[in-house]
Structures are given as structure tokens and as C-alpha cells.
TrEMBL record, chains A, B:
Protein name: TetR/AcrR family transcriptional regulator
Ranges where the HTH tetR-type domain occurs: 26-86
Protein's UniProt keywords contain Nucleus: no
SUPFAM superfamilies given in the database record: Homeodomain-like, Tetracyclin repressor-like, C-terminal domain
Keywords: DNA-binding, Transcription, Transcription regulation
Statement: the UniProt record of this protein carries the keyword Transcription: yes
Classification via Pfam families: TetR_N
Taxonomic source organism: Rhizobium mayense
Length: 219, 219
DNA sequence: CCAACCTGTCACCAGCCGGTGAATAACAAG
DNA sequence: CTTGTTATTCACCGGCTGGTGACAGGTTGG
């Protein structure tokens, strides 16, 4: 209940400023999509709804039904957008490094993913949503996210072959799970399992621990 | 309209089904608490509210205000209950094994925690809640949980000293984060980062990967 | 010019939510 | 029986939610 009710009512419009709203469907669609992403990123999925999005976009909720077919369609549009996330936020090359071993690769991937997730509130909210609910909406989002991520990893892997005798799928799942929970927990409470995660120094220590784990498995 | 409003009172109860409700405050309190835990475990924190709990407990919501001081107090009561969780669900001894090294200990702790979390829907919902919201309610729950967990680890550790030169806090945070996210994701979608987690065979592979990680760090 | 669209707004509905004041029913003591 | 206490329920409020039908106004084309 202590949600941010601070700004709900808008004051009466000043008559001198009719705030002419241009008739432009494409722009409105974009405004709605942006409002949805912003709202989800900043407020989380708890109070995410038709009314809130319409309020945030400054238009009538009816338009959301018209242009996106309701909240489901809007969420799906967000998911489609998600595909470009990896492209925008995670480097696609090896940063000039030569990745000689699978361990080199995984260490780099882990650190890149950690930073990218840390810098993207929307993605964090989506991950939190994924482990909290199992509706069709979330399943779609989740699928889009995992697909984009898998593609990125595949691209980065290149022709590097995984080591024999190790269940790389299982181990990598553990590593990525660790990163996701660590970042989520830190974003909410500033710590995770007794490890404080606030200053950049804290995060350096976390990165060191992460490297240690990756190197422990892959050498 | 007037004819419809003519009768406000419910018709006379059927004499065959008085559904006698015993007057027993302690029992009612317990029923409320049980309903709250059950509801949270089964439905998640999304639709968790005064009305839902009262409905589930089969009593009026007013009693929740009276006996627990509202939802906050009720959640706090759940948190208090949580302290006994570790005691009930995770063995407190070493199961007859001699834990010679810190690696032995951490491997055992990790596997025990994995199984315990996997078997406890309520705890899973609380963990998911923790990474989704940052209200006072959740903070209290989170604190109770982490305190109980830390106590358990401390007890299990006994006189075993952690290895030098390793940031055990950081590494252990990673390990426990991995377990939590893995179990949460699996409970919701049956997989995690491409790793399918449905059959017990799947979980054995996950356990193996987990052991590999722990042993990779702690030897 | 009028007619047909398209964009956007408004008013309204039923339903649920958290929250509260008062009535009611069971019991205990005098 | 009367009185008081305690447990329990009831009735109602304002506010927000998702959802829909009707309407206003600009834009286009015949």
C-alpha cells in the first residue's frame, strides 16, 4: 500500500494551454509502448495495468485496446522489442581479446551479462516477473528474452568447442542463475545472502568471486 | 428497483445446516495464519490480501485486523513462523558424515538447501517476493528468512575454519543465489536458462553441476 | 457539399480492494 | 434473570481496476 500515490490527479488544465494533441497514430503507439516499458522498469509488474499505462502515456486506455488489442498485445510488443536488447547493450565481439579457452569465453560472458543486467532495470523487472508468475503474458516475455540471450551466447561462442566431460549446460545454467539472482536481490535490497552490494567496490568483489567460480569449473 | 430492494435480509437459514462455528479465538487465529500461509504458498504474493485471507480462513476480515493488526502483522507472524522452518525441514547434523574440509561442508549445505527449497512452496514464494518488491512487509520477511538461514549455516559449520585466500562470503553468496534462482525458475517454468528441470533425473544432473561448481572453488 | 473514415475522449459499468463502525451471538459472572 | 465481556459477523464507504459503448473532431475522398 505504500505505493507511490503521490502524483495521480492532474491539476485542471489551464485554459490558455489546450495542449494540442496532434493526430498521429504512429506517435501515439510509440508513446504507449514507451510508457509501458518505463512503467514496468520503474514501478515493477505489481501495479502494471491498462489504466496505469494509459495514464503514463497521457492518452485514453481505449487506444491501448485499439492499437495493441489490450495489455497482452502490449506486453508482446515489449517482448518483440526485447530482441534488440542484446544488440544494444551487450557487445557482440570479443573486445579485441583472443579467447583461447572455453573458460576465457565463459568468464567474459558472465561479466558482460552481469554488467548488462545491472544497468537495465526493465530487464531486471522482467526476470523478477518470470520467477513470480506463470501467465501467458510472462511466458511470452520469458521466451523472447531467453531466445535473444541464447542467440547472443551462440554468436559469442563462435567456433570454440566446449570441454569434454563437463555438463556445460548445467554448469552454465547455474552461473547465469547466480548472476540473475544476485543482481535482482541487490537491486531490491542492496545485498544478497549476506553479501553487501552497494558500492562499486562491492561489485568488484562480486565479480572476483564470479570469476573464481567460473575458473574453478572451466580452468 | 423498489421490488428488488424489498428484501435485504437473507432468507431464513435452512435448519438442517446451521454450520456451527465454535467460539475459539486461539483456533481462529491459527486458522487465519494457516490460511495466509497456504494462500501465499499456493497463489503467490500477487493476489495476497486481507479479503483473500479472510475468505480462505472462512471468517470475517475484521478478525484479521483485531487479532493481527492487519496484513502487516499477519505477515510478521508468518515471518516468526519462518524461524522454525530451518529446524523442521533441514537436518541439523551432518548425517553421520565426517566433514573433513570446508568443501565437504559447502557441498552438503548446497545440496541440502536445494532440496529444502525445492520442497517448500511457501519459502519459494517468499524468495520470489523478496526480489520483486521492497516494502516493509517483504523486508521483515526477508530478514527473518536470512537470519534463520545464517543461523543454520553457522550451526552446521561448527568449528570448521574457512580456507584462506578465498572470499567465502562472496563465493557462497553466488552459490546460494544460483540455487535460489534455479529452484524458483524451475518451479514456475520447469526450466532455467535452457536447462530443463522436471524429472528427478534432471535434478540429479543439476545437483552434479552444483557439486562441480562447489568443488571447483573449494576443492 | 456531404459522407465515410480515423483518432482521440468521455462517461459509465460491474467488481474487487482495503478499511471501519456498529450490530449480533455466545458465554461467564453476579 | 441481568449485566458485561468477548468472539464473530454485517453493512457500508471511497477508490481503483479492467472493460465497453457512445460521441466529438479532424481528414480524406467522392
Amino acid at each position: 500500500m505504500p505505493s507511490a500515490n503521490a502524483v495521480l490527479k492532474k491539476p485542471i488544465e489551464m485554459p490558455a494551454e489546450p495542449e494540442k494533441r496532434v493526430r498521429n497514430r504512429a506517435a501515439t503507439e510509440q508513446a504507449i509502448l514507451n510508457a509501458a516499458k518505463r512503467l514496468l522498469a520503474e514501478e515493477g509488474f505489481q501495479n502494471f495495468g491498462i489504466n496505469a499505462v494509459a495514464r503514463g502515456a497521457g492518452c485514453d486506455k481505449q487506444l491501448i485496446y485499439r492499437y495493441y488489442g489490450g495489455l497482452d498485445g502490449l506486453v508482446e510488443a515489449i517482448g518483440t522489442d526485447l530482441g534488440s536488447w542484446v544488440k544494444d547493450r551487450i557487445p557482440d565481439d570479443t573486445g579485441g581479446m583472443f579467447l583461447l579457452t572455453y573458460g576465457d569465453l565463459m568468464e567474459r560472458l558472465a561479466l558482460l551479462f552481469l554488467d548488462a543486467l545491472r544497468a537495465d532495470p526493465l530487464m531486471r523487472r522482467i526476470v523478477a516477473w518470470e520467477v513470480s508468475e506463470n501467465t501467458e503474458q510472462v511466458r511470452r516475455l520469458s521466451e523472447a528474452r531467453s531466445k535473444a540471450l541464447a542467440g547472443w551466447i551462440e554468436r559469442m561462442r563462435g567456433s570454440l568447442t566446449p570441454p569434454k566431460g563437463i555438463d556445460t549446460i548445467g554448469v552454465n545454467a547455474m552461473i547465469f542463475a547466480a548472476i540473475q539472482h544476485l543482481v535482482l536481490s541487490a537491486a531490491v535490497s542492496g545485498q544478497c545472502a549476506g553479501l553487501v552490494l552497494k558500492t562499486s567496490k562491492d561489485w568488484e568483489k562480486a565479480a572476483t568471486a564470479l570469476k573464481r567460480i567460473v575458473r574453478g569449473v572451466y580452468g
